[in-house]
Every structure is written in C-alpha cells, then in structure tokens.
Write a structure and sequence with these properties.
Strand content: 5-15%
Structural class: alpha/beta
Number of domains: 2
Radius of gyration: 16 Å
Number of strands: 8
Helix content: 40-55%
Strand order of the largest sheet: 5-4-1-6-7-8
CATH topology of the largest domain: Rossmann fold
Shape: globular
CATH superfamily of the largest domain: HAD superfamily/HAD-like
Order of helices and strands: EEHHHHEHEHEHEHEHEH
Number of helices: 10
CATH class of the largest domain: Alpha Beta
Length: 223
C-alpha cells in the first residue's frame, strides 16, 4: 500500500538537538540537587517532561515535575534553541515528500513554541500540512497521543498508509501503538538493537541517507 502521509519527529531526526537537550536537562536537574550521568539522561531523550522526569525521579509530585520541565524549557530556549541546526538534507527530505504528493506532518514532543521555531529553521511552512506538539496532548511519547492526534488532524486515513520517521525508540513505540510503521534514524545516537527492538521497519544513518534511498525505502517502495 502506498504511503500517503509521513509523520516526522524533529529533535534528533530533522534537527541536531538531542545533546543540547541532555545538557539542558542536566542543568535543570542540578537546580534541584539531582545528578545523573549524561548517558542516563540521553537514554530518556525523545520523551516529554511528563514521561522523562518520572522515569528518573519517580517520587516527585506533579507540580515538581511541571516545575522541572519549565526549568528545562527555559534553559533550552535561553542557551540552545537558537544554535540548533538542521541535519544536512532535512529540508530536502521534507521537500521530496511534499513533491511526491505525500502529506507531511511534524509530530514532536517539543513545545509548540519550539515547533514553530523549527518550522522556520527548516524553511518548511509551505511543505508541512499539519503539526502536533506536547501542547496538543496529555501524554507525550512513548504514549501514542502525539501520533494519534496527528492522525486525527489528517482526517479519514488508514494507518497502513502512514509512516513515522524518528530517531528514538519512543517514536517507534508510539507509532506502533497507533498501528503505524516507523523508520529509525541513527542521528539520535540510539543503538541499532534498541531501535529494532522498538519495532523499526528500517534503519538509516540520517535524513540525508534516507533521502538518497527514498524510492527504495519504505517511504517510496510501496508507491
């Protein structure tokens, strides 16, 4: 069945920002006297505050979780957001999907403000049909809400006609809960076995590699 819509994650997939989020979370945790090594934090990147913080600090109440998320967001915006760069080929991949007639959606656990910034950074406003962010849902990845909301925004569409492109196991798990297949990208620095274990149907090094193999990839091979 041809893929008629593609849900693209942003952080670590289209934009090289995962390590920046690690640093921002490290500083936010330090602000409440908590400390984790960077690999431990990295392994949670791809989740929103509601999923990431309780995994590492399960005893915090909801207000403390929200406060910590606000601190992370403020640090990331102040120190890193404006320096984050798209991966080479990110705009061109979105343009290829759009030119092929596939509906392009950005579906991220980032905030709505960050998502709007990335739309401009990627020069993608004319290419993207719909967006979903953490502001649109109650639970972020690996809960299905982000992608489920995106599917609702697309209207009457068969999940078998949709593909997710993401860099974390949480993207892939969330997609699977919606009945959507997912391509994993190594640009987020998660191990192949972790991405495959989450259910990735194919792996590529980055967006440029996926673009180079577009016709033969799961995005184009069923067309």
């Amino acid at each position: 069945m041809p893929i008629t819509a593609i849900l693209y994650d942003i952080d670590g997939t289209l934009v090289d920002s995962n390590e920046m989020h690690v640093l921002a979370w490290e500083e936010a945790f330090a602000g409440i006297g908590a400390s984790f090594d960077r690999q431990t934090i990295h392994d949670q990147i791809g989740k929103g505050t509601d999923m990431l913080v309780p995994t590492l600090l399960p005893d915090l109440d909801d207000d403390a979780v929200e406060s910590l998320g606000d601190a992370h967001g403020a640090i990331f915006k102040a120190k890193y957001l404006k320096t984050a760069k798209p991966f080479p080929g990110a705009h061109d991949l979105l343009a290829r999907s759009h030119a092929t007639g596939q509906r392009v959606v950005l579906a991220s656990s980032a905030s709505a403000e960050e998502l709007e910034h990335y739309l401009e950074l990627l020069d993608a406003n004319a290419l993207v049909e719909k967006t979903t962010s953490s502001d649109d849902v109650e639970n972020t990845k690996p809960a299905p809400d982000i992608f489920a909301t995106a599917l609702k925004k697309l209207g009457d569409i068969d999940p078998a006609e949709v593909m997710v492109v993401g860099d974390t196991p949480y993207d892939i798990e969330a997609a699977g809960k919606c009945g959507v297949a997912a391509i994993g990208l190594r640009s987020g620095k998660f191990a192949d076995d972790v991405l495959r274990g989450a259910g990735a149907v194919a792996l590529y090094d980055d967006v440029a590699a996926l673009l180079a193999d577009y016709d033969a990839s799961p995005l184009g091979s069923a067309a």
